[in-house]
Design a protein that fits this description.
Elements (H helix, E strand, L loop, with lengths): L11 H10 L1 E5 L7 H10 L4 E5 L5 H11 L4 E5 L4 H10 L3 E3 L5 H10 L3 E2 L1 E2 L2 H9 L5 E4 L7 H9 L8 E4 L8 H5 L7 E3 L5 H6 L2 H18 L3
């Protein structure tokens, strides 16, 4: 397959907005009827970006509802594993997409579709491959805790520091380490599944989700200027 190269697979303006949001709530939704409430609750708590994972049959329906009814929230598609899912996420209104790994066919499909995309990386070869294909601004660092945490990211990315790549770590991030991650210039934003976990969504515990969002927002505000 021919490699497609682009210089702006994750446009600068979008990258800046993601960095300003700083916290991206990673959400798995089983009931699309709760999607809007989740998004509104997160926004009320200061979290204005969501990675809605394509792990459930209703994920795309949930995404459409949030895009239509909570436009102030930036909605990305997560766990995008195939070219078909790239097209589906684009149609559903995703502002961007991310994946747990680096798959050339998926990156190429995102480039063709004009869908901003950040592949998952945890090795030098994956960083170089993603960069070659046009992922020059933002990549996902996954699984962050298994790959050495923040020190692992610093060591992994050191040879590429001059390229200006920034990362969205996900996997093992928690309320008590989010501020540390966000304090490092390498980190564009933190992905957090702890902010709105599936059990709280299923229970409709909006108060708990709002509190978690407020904790994440406070962590951002403690280390980043507005």
């Amino acid at each position: 397959m021919e490699t497609k190269t682009t210089s702006d697979l994750f446009p600068a303006q979008l990258a800046e907005r993601v960095s300003k949001c700083a916290n991206i709530a990673v959400v798995v939704i089983d009931d699309p009827g709760k999607a809007v409430a989740v998004a509104r609750t997160l926004f009320e708590g200061g979290v204005s970006a969501i990675e809605l994972t394509l792990r459930t049959p209703c994920a795309l329906d949930a995404m459409r509802r949030i895009v239509a009814e909570v436009p102030e929230v930036l909605v990305g598609a997560g766990t995008v594993l195939t070219a078909a899912q790239v097209a589906q996420a684009k149609e559903a209104g995703a502002a961007f997409a991310v994946a747990p790994g680096f798959n050339r066919s998926v990156v190429s499909a995102a480039a063709d579709a004009g869908l901003p995309f950040a592949p998952g990386v945890m090795t030098p070869s994956e960083i170089e491959g993603a960069y070659e294909m046009g992922c020059t601004r933002v990549m996902k660092f996954f699984p962050a805790s298994v790959a050495g945490g923040l020190q692992g990211l610093r060591t992994l990315s050191a040879p590429y520091k001059h390229l200006g790549i920034r990362f969205i770590p996900l996997g093992g991030l928690k309320a008590d380490n989010t501020a540390e991650w966000l304090s490092d210039p390498l980190v564009a934003a933190c992905g957090g599944s702890w902010i709105a976990p599936a059990k709280l969504i299923a229970a409709g515990d909006w108060a708990a989700i709002r509190r978690n969002a407020e904790i994440a927002t406070a962590a951002r505000d403690a280390v980043r200027k507005a």
